[in-house]
Amino acid sequence: MAENDAKPTLPKKSGPYISSVTSHGMNLVIRGIVLFFIGVFLALVLNLLQIQRNVTLFPPDVITSIFSSAWWVPPCCGTASAVIGLLYPCMDRHLGEPHKFKREWSSVMRCVAVFVGINHASAKVDFANNIQLSLTLAALSIGLWWTFDRSRSGFGLGVGIAFLATLVSQLLVYNGVYQYTSPDFLYVRSWLPCIFFAGGITMGNIGRQLAMVSVEGGLTAF
For residue 188, what are the β-bridge partners? Predict the structure, then answer.
C-alpha cells in the first residue's frame, strides 16, 4: 500500500527564483536604457557648447549629425553614462554603504544643472591662463561632489572615471579622431579631468536615484 501511495507534490523552488532574476534583469535593462538616453542628450548639448567655442574640433566630414556632433560621440557617452549610473548603486550595495544623502529628484536636477554650468564655464568663461581655469573647475567639481554626494565610493569612482576617460581622450586625439585647441596637458586641455569627474558624480547620482525608485516600486536594486 505504501508503494502505491502517491507521493505529495513538492512546490517548485525555481519559480520565485526565476521571477526574481527576471525582475532584477528588467530593472537593470530599464535603468540602463534611461541612463543611456540621458547621457546621449547631455552629450549633444554639452558637445555643442564646446564646438561653438572651438574648444574641440572634428574633421569636416564627420560633422554631419544634429548639433554638429560627430556621430559616435552621443552613443559612446550614452553607454558610459549607463555603465556609470549602474555602477554607483552597485558599489554602494557591495560596500554596505547605502547612499542616503539628499536622495530626491530635486537634488539630482540641481546636480545636473551645476554640471552643465561647470561645462559651460569651461567653454565660455575666459581666464588669464589655463592653470587658473583648471584650478577653478577642479574646485567647482569637488564642490559638486561635496554638495550632492559626500560618499567615499562616489569620490573614488569619480577619480577613476576621470583618469580612464582622460586616458581614452588622449588616445583618440593622438590617433587623429579629433583635437583640442590649445592643448596644455599632452594632447588635451588640463581641465578635462575635472569635467569627467563632475560628469561621473552627476550620472552616479542619477543612477542612485533611479535605483531608489526601483526599490520603492518593489524591485531590488543592484
Answer: 185
